[in-house]
Request: fold
Amino acid sequence: MKATFCTRREFCALFLFLNVFVLISVLRHMDILEFQPKFNSTIIMPRVSTHPNEIHSFCTFQPLSPEDALEEYLILDSTAWPETPLLPAPISLQQTSDPAHSNFTILPGRKGGEWHVGDQLEVMIQTSDFQGRPKKSGGDFLLASLHNRTLEAGVAGQVVDHLNGSYSAVFSLLWEGDAQVEVTLVHPGEAISVLNRLNREQPDRIYFKSLFRSGSLSETTLCNVCLRPTQQPLCNYTDLRTSEPWFCYKPKNLSCDARINHYNGGWKSKVLNANEEKLFQRGVNLKVYIRASGPASVTVLPQKEGQTQVKSSTVTSGPSGYYYQGVWRALGGTTVHEFNASAISQCLKGKAVHMYGDSTIRQWFEFLNAALPGLKKFDLHSPKRTGPHICLDYANNILVTFRSHGPPIRFDPLDTRELCYIANELDHLIGGPNTVVVFTIWAHFGTFPMEIYIRRLQSIRRAVVRLLDRAPDTLIVIRTGNPKDLNLFASLFNSDWHSLQCNKVLRAMFKGLNVHLIDAWEMNLAHHLPHDLHPPPPIIRNMINHLLSYICPQNGS
Reply:
């Protein structure tokens, strides 16, 4: 009884602390309230924060409800990256992790050194700096995968940071034969500290513009979620339904209502000093393989009789699937079937498939358009990259659509009337058993504090809940982000680290809802082909097969 009371008392204390935190957070942001518009295109006079410790004072956040603020706090806390000890300025490359001096070791398996299908393989990774000294702190970003090129087999490993310079990678053994271990240093911890700071201090390092026009007058101004305070007033384009913030500097001679388009204006070419740039060197410390200190592969024997089969993954551990003979096999949930053109047409017959997001979901739209002879794309004279796009197959009554998500979309000039937030689009759908919703949102948020991404997902989730409430048999599928080819530029504007963090937030946000995830991260990591922002055709085909297996779980070719 005493233990029960103590537990409840501790719970109440925690609950009280979190409520006080939320209240303080709301009070600190009360000065933003006067900025919230009742109507669109309002003018905001510039205001500079006087808070001495607010390093991103020009990036103001709208107050949240206590429930949303608590969720944001808990998600940020649960996804916080291990801190790397601060090095004296200027940063010395010699003290950071060097893949050439680091190594991994395959730990002994079963008695007798055997591994069988269904076992787990564990690898110990030790990082060292450029002088060969073992690191004493964690925070490096490592990727691990297991491959057999001959069998076209592969699976992603789960990496654990022991916070002392050593890491573990754990793999599920899922096929017979050789299994080659690959461990990659994506970023040293010091580089991630730089990326995290940039997202706080320079979220505008990619900037956007809008053209304003009235008659013969036209002006162009800068736009963003976060704009630095100047003497120039702001136009407030915060969405009235979702409360998604967006601002432009007001033109000198035109009204806020004269805005006609949105486009990617460019990027700041110099955001790091020379020492910081050394943390992002291809072939040196940016996505470089770490060597093995001994054997780098094992031979996997058949599963032993009575041995437990590897089961489906959870949200936080275990692989979501693996490749065998080039085909993705999901672990748990829906069995992934292969679909040829005829099977795709049969599966989608009578269906409306609505796709929303960025170019990585547009790949799916283009794949279906190319794969189905009867699916004809209508020319709406809309930009190729943003849409909207529509394909119809009259004979089979199939509709497939694509729309890009709203700002901060980094595409070519887009008419403001075509700027659509996913949440608003979902609210326009009736839904039902013949409606499929597919979306992704991650790649265009790589320069912003994670709070902005969390709040976007909160508004999308509310719309998903509303859609499922009115039409619970609507199928909703979410594509996660994926690793990509990295150089200095890509690292600073859309790093794999930020994409991984977005995936963690996405999983936490939609956990428990009747939605399906397609794990693009692991489907790329487990494949032998090089990482690419836009995955190559073999991976896209497997993603489409996975999607179609959700739509038609009993079908396939």
